[in-house]
Design brief:
alpha+beta, 2 domains, five-stranded antiparallel β-sheet, elongated
Length: 137
């Protein structure tokens, strides 16, 4: 996980996954998340589907890597699926998020990158102009 992901993460869902791992005989408190990303959401937000990757030790201390999907209905239930392949993970995520709004991030197009760069340049030039135009006191 990068620094931003560590600062802005869904600790509630991480805890739910850790509790599930404990119930399945793993050492959930020691689980290390590689990522936990929102995949889909149902308005007003009670139902959320996350995809994740983690490493977790069993009671013998042997570490395993798992991919998974969490369907979290904050009103009453949580459903966790652990799988070994990205294809299985994607299929389960699609199935449990049917009729939900997908939260897929699309890469920026070249025109979007150009517009963001132009905007940032204009702000930078405006700030530089403001600094240079200040009269010394």
């Amino acid at each position: 996980m990068n620094l931003l992901d560590r600062l802005v993460r869904n600790r509630g869902t991480e805890k739910d996954v850790r509790d599930y791992l404990d119930q399945q005989g793993w050492e959930g408190k020691f689980a290390q998340f590689d990522y936990l990303e929102l995949f889909a959401i149902q308005r007003p937000g009670w139902v959320q589907v996350f995809k994740f990757s983690l490493r977790v030790p069993d009671s013998e201390g042997e570490w395993s890597r798992w991919l998974g999907v969490v369907r979290d209905d904050e009103r009453n239930s949580i459903q966790v699926s652990l799988v070994e392949s990205e294809l299985e993970q994607e299929q389960i995520a699609e199935r449990v998020s049917k009729d939900l709004h997908k939260a897929r991030r699309q890469p920026l197009s070249k025109i979007q990158i150009a517009l963001v760069t132009l905007g940032a340049s204009l702000v930078g030039f405006a700030a530089l102009g403001a600094l240079l135009s200040e009269a010394p006191s």
